[in-house]
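cron nightly-structures :: item 1 of 1
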Amino acid sequence: MYRDTLSLLGPVLPVVSFLGRLPTAMCQLGSLLLVAETSGSLTTAGLAGGALAAGQTVAGPLVGRLADRRGQRPVVLAASLANAVAVTALVLAALAQAATGLLMLLGALAGATVPQIGPLARTRSVRLARAAGADDRAVSTVLSFEGTLDEVSFVLGPALVGLAAAVAHPAAALLTAAALLAGCGTAFALHPTARTPETDPEAVRKATRTSAAERSRLPASTYALRVTMVLQGAMFGASQAGITALTERLGAPDQAGLVYAAMGVTSAAAGFAMAAVPARIGLTARWRASTALLVVLAAPLVLVEGLGWLYAGVVVLGVAYAPHLITVFGLTERTVPPARLAESMAFLTSGIVGGQALALAVSGRLAETHGAPAAFGVAAGAAVACAVLSWTVRVRTAPAEEVRPAVAAPSA
């Protein structure tokens, strides 16, 4: 099922893109643990972590836009090296017990310089598939593969941070992330698939005539897809707050990370299986089905009381996460102009980060005052909003021929 995808991408690109996106999953939790330990203040840790999330949310689409206009190679190379420096500076400042303002500034810089390897890898893979003449089913398989890599990274990243914090120090996790950024981020940037391929002169002239119009016009449904990703991020944040609150009330706070990881494992498995969905089931139908599943599976968490039921509830909920994410990425790829694909993919990823950070802050406070059901209620409400969007917004997808970039695919 994934043989053609691996043949298209080659053996090296998936490895470096996976290792290059691990730091994104490590830095959020790593910065919280590091600043909390060195400052002794959860408030300071929350401010530094919030600044990191805000920096990534705001700057992510700008990195994507630069990659669309200047090419991935120079943008990713510069961002990877800058991000490695920023993360290292944050570690050194935290170890030196710097002032809260400086920690927030460095956290914001660490977030703003994230090289967006996840969305750019997805963009690069889709463009390679389109340029190779792949049909929509093959592109869907590519998106499922990239979605699975994202899910696995967001499960493995926090686990590595927790392991490093337990064995050594949270600083070790962030310094490892900085090394991955410098090494694998550079490898991703310099991979042959990042080169701008030679184009047909007529295609170049046509692109020149239409690029300004393409960049100034996005379908209205694009913004609905971005909102649904913010809501998906809100589900992540609210679920995390609910899981943390309930495990603490049950006297098993060390189980919170394991519960969240279990949800990520089932989500990754569901994403991997998305390639088997028949092509006759269109993207709009998949979007509506996945949001309906989110509502059905999120609502019971409000009633969960025991640890066993919590594991069961979140493991089942994970089945709906990746299909929704992959479908929204697929709809975006079929909707936006090719000249704005990387920017749009980065917008979706940044929306998840922003929604998660905001919901974690709000639902965490609700969980403190009203218990875990209040946080899970936020997650269920976000699921309902996703479903309302999917059933009321009409997404017009372009035929495959219209969304292929007019370039030849470079050898992987």
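cron nightly-structures :: done
The first helix runs from residue 3 to 9.
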